[in-house]
Amino acid sequence: MNELLGLVFSPWTEKARWALDVRRIPYTFRHYQPLIGEPALRAKLRRLTGRVSVPVLTTDEGRVLDGSTDIARWADGRGAGPTLFPAEHEAEVARFIDLSERALSSGRARALSRMLADDEALAEMAPGPVRRAFGPLASRLGALGVRRTLRKYDGHTADGEAHRQTLVAALDELRATLARKTLVGAGPKTLLDSFTFADITMCQALVNVAPPAELKLGAASRRCFSDPDLGDRYADLIAWRDELYRAFRTS
Predict the structure, then answer these.
(1) How many whole angstroms separate alpha carbon 166 and alpha carbon 151?
(2) Rounded to whole angstroms, how far apart are CA atoms 39 and 67?
């Protein structure tokens, strides 16, 4: 059986899960524990130094794939369902992947910075057994993990306003693309001629504006991931995202 290692609250993991689900690829999901699980992850990836992260898929053939895009490409060659990477739109899909990554990186830096000022959210970042064992000290352990993530992705060195502008620019481009599209038949608009990985990846660009209900977040963490001002500004994009979830996200 294919096994996906990931974080239930991660938009990168959600990209991989959505691709596997929409292509009807069977798999088991295993939650990754940051810090504690890193030695085993390094061994799995055969990467003793450098940055490692999830999602990581171990296929039933013994292959190990890391990163949501590589996992989605693998899924696209198997199973059944919408073609996620149509050959005629390869360049456009790649452009939306890059746009989504920029939005997600900036959104993550902003959300984690907000989290550092929220003890309840920090405690939610600690595993359940740790919260029960350490009580109020769990928030300090959560803060260690959040600061480590910010260092890992260089989010601590960048200006918060610069991150906001990067996210806004990505969402403005998404809005402009959708405005040029004509709705054909029933169902939501898609970024290309049909539902593809471009739609999956750009849906996640909105995670740090208003997380979808499907993303497993505690109440305090959801508060930190949300930006009410941008949520009002991009209510139309949130509605588009939610419509895509209803139409194409069945698992």
Answers:
(1) 19
(2) 18
* CATH assignment of 2-76, among 3.30.390.50, 3.40.720.10, 3.40.30.10, 3.40.50.1100: 3.40.30.10
Rounded Cα–Cα distance for residues 69 and 75 (Å): 10
- Contact residues for 84 (Cβ-Cβ < 8 A; gap 6+): 19, 22, 23, 72, 73, 75, 76, 93, 196, 197, 200
* pTM beyond cutoff 0.90: yes
pLDDT per residue over 39-51, tens digit each?
Answer: 999 999 999 999 8
Dig out the tokens for 190 from the structure: 């898609």
pLDDT tens by residue, 96-115: 999 999 999 999 999 999 99
Distance CA 161, CA 163 (A): 5
3-state helix, strand and coil shares in percent for the chain, rounded to the nearest 5: 60, 5, 35
- CA 90 to chain centroid, in Å, comes to 21
pLDDT band for position 86 (cuts 50, 70, 90): very high
